[in-house]
Amino acid sequence: MQTDRPDTEKITLSAYLIILGFVILVLRLWQLQILQGSEMRKVSETNRLRVIGVPAPRGIIFDRNNIPLVRNTPYFCASVIPQEFNRADITDLARLLDVPETDLYDRVTRKAASPFTPVRIKEGLTFSEVSYIEARRSDFPGLLIEVETSREYRYGDIGAHLIGYLGKLNPRQSKDPSFKDVPPEAFIGQWGAEKLYDKSLRGTAGQRIIEVDAVGREIRLLYETVPVKGSDITLSMDIAVQKEAEDAFAGRAGAFVAIKPDTGEILGLVSSPSFDPNKFAKGISYDDWQTLMEDKKLPMLNRAIQSQYPPGSTFKIITAIAALEAGAIDTGTKFECKGGLNYGKWRFGCWQKKGHNVLSIHRALVESCDVFFYETGRRAGFDKVAEVARLFGLGTETGIPLGNEKKGLIPDSHWKLETKKTPWFLGETFINSIGQGYVLTTPIQLAVMMSAVANNGHIYQPTLLRDAPPALVRTLDISPDTFEIVKDALKGVVNEPGGTGHAAHSAMAAVGGKTGTAQVVGIRKDSKYLAERFRDHAWFVAFAPVEKPEIALSVFVEHGGHGGSAAAPIAKKAVEAYLLSADKKKELVNVQH
Amino acid sequence: MFNIDRRLIRNFDWITFSIIIVISLIGIMTIFSATRQPGDAPQASFYIKQIVWLLISICALIAIISFDYIWLGRIALVLYIAGIVLLVIVLISGRTGMGAQRWISIGFFSFQPSEFFKLIFIIMLANYFSLQRETLDTFALLRVFFMIVCIPFLLLFKQPDLGTAVVVLLIFISVSLARGLQKKLFVSLIIIGMVSLPFIGNILWTGLKDYQKNRLIAFIDPQADPMGIGYHINQSKIAIGSGELTGKGFLKGTQGPFRFLPEKHTDFIFAVYAEERGFVGSIFLLFLYFVLVLRGLDTARKAKDEFGRLLALGITFMFSIYFFVNVGMTLGIMPVVGIPLPFMSYGGTALLSNFISAGVLINIRTRRFSLFY
Q: What is the pLDDT of residue A110?
């Protein structure tokens, strides 16, 4: 049978070829499984595991009457799944959503964790946009609408500087390790109480680790941690006081701070004009941000703690206390005001050009006689006045836990020698004793000062939470008699004939206060005909009820003119709002939503 | 015809038989793992069906061994004509599966005629070549090509079953080379082939379906579109690579059950296996195929006649082509051609036809001594 010898040579050649083939496969297996093995293992794991953050509901912020100031409301976002989205649709989709085409293109093509993870393309859709998109969704495969929660500030710009707002992580925060748990798209507190108490308000985000298949469908839940809602906080702020004070500014620039004298709690803090934190809640638009930044009235500046002005006649409280304590004057000490005081070749005028005649400390405060306090300051010496001013917290930060607080300035002879290289002149004692010249204070400092007068010498660090323990900074060694004299005089300012603070008079409680007018330019003119920017700044500090003070405050109206006419009415409204019953307060601030 | 004597049993090729049984059992375990639903019980149907098919296949193998393979040569033409008819029937009335017509339903069960046709083709080719005494010249080769190769190739290409069509062509080339060509013819064929490659390539390319074109593009550059056409190759490489040295362990693989791998229990079964068993397990499996193939070549060398020699070579080449193309594909060094891994992949017809083919190999080896006949 075997006429042909089997061609073993060719079979052997085939065997070599096959051996070669096996060697190639083994080498390839070595390359994939041994050399690239661990890398491939990682890829295979991320392939099927997907970590989805479940945001925790943010804690609610209440005012001291337990009225909620914020609300978490759902809002709608449009997203696309890149894998399913047809890039040819970008032009049409951009038109539908009214977003720039290039911006949309960037978002859709950005490298994402997985082509199955939705990419956010527009946030905060209106209801009509949502229904329009839903109706046309079949035209855009991969387009979906997601529901997110946003922060709604029920009172808009009322209390915005105190409550604050939310924003996405800024570049510096993204690098900060303390924010490493915050997902990149999440909103965190960026201002005010939202920022200050962000950690407890934020809560703990939950996590869902799911197994997915190749098309990103959820197969099984592997692990889940339930989000823990952020803690609610109760501010010391009284929304009724806040609203009444803020409304009373009626758009004028200025600031208002109200403090509870026996604890240091902030009852209200206004910086006018304010801003609407709701604009930040869904990510502020570029235009809105530009408008805020370019506004000449600086709505983003917290005037209550960041602007410093001469305190004007409100500083006479300090001068009076210093002189009484130093024994430079007593209740019987009388000076005559002839409408001014001559010193060398200079004349230091009283605001009342016709003069106040002879008066003692009580009427001098009531009528705010400048000449009386020139003389008082001269007798006590301004270094003594400055010492007392510093004891009341002027010239240093009050320590309110809001950022970038300004220190103000309390000058003395030592300071002048150091910074101006010249000795202190008596003329400087005169003008600084009535709160002009070098003296600079912030509205919050004057509120703390007023509070310390009201509570007979206790300086508290201002706090923002209702239930926080009072933070006593120091107790002043000043006699109760001195406080009685001054408080009685301040009551007179509002209630006695000839008092400068009549506009703060209230039928609800006895108000004590002091007006102040900070000069903008040296030349005195009738403010009525003066351009607004040359008009004086108006101050008013007050406390009420005089017998048992529950609220101490300072009001500042930029270019407002006289303290008595511009600032005192605001103080009255705030005091009366504070004294309302809880039900009346709710009624007052009831916002329809 | 059924003269089973003791010497036949003594000469039985236990090595080939054991290897295909072991590979088939590994295959069933891998199918079990690949088709399980995450979080659920495995899908019973796949691995149970494969077990049933394995039992049927073993019976068929025994039946094939029971008669001398020389009979196969005698009925070669009848088998060939029957095979062609079946391919035509598939084209006309076949059931469509995976975008191609490959199946014929007979009552409750459907099968792929092309699976059996490969063996028939090898028998026909071996029979024809063994009758030609002289070295093949140009004329003889062209005659073989047009008489035996051309018609089935076109029918398979039309189905379209690109994998089988290419395998048939490769078997023809390799068996022809093993049979021996005139040196002049060999050289001129290479030159003609190289010159005409662009034309043939172009014709083939336009004849391809889109998914076939995509597979070729993906093979050349898998990273071109990792979520699109390169997806299968990438996922397969990830599956295999993530097995590392010792594998993730049985039923611990994730690429298959989570649908990252396409055709996980058929064409990409090796990837599922390599993911769970790692480099060590993969080398073991390669070793089994290595022994199977070398054993087949040895059978060819020891065959008692030219028909047996060419038949054994053809079957061994067929196994080798399937093996290298399939494993090469999962490893990303071969284009994605939809052909299964012999004895491993899920598929009853393929398992049966592979067992019958292996049975023919065992038959040739068992009857290598002509004096018993």
A: 67
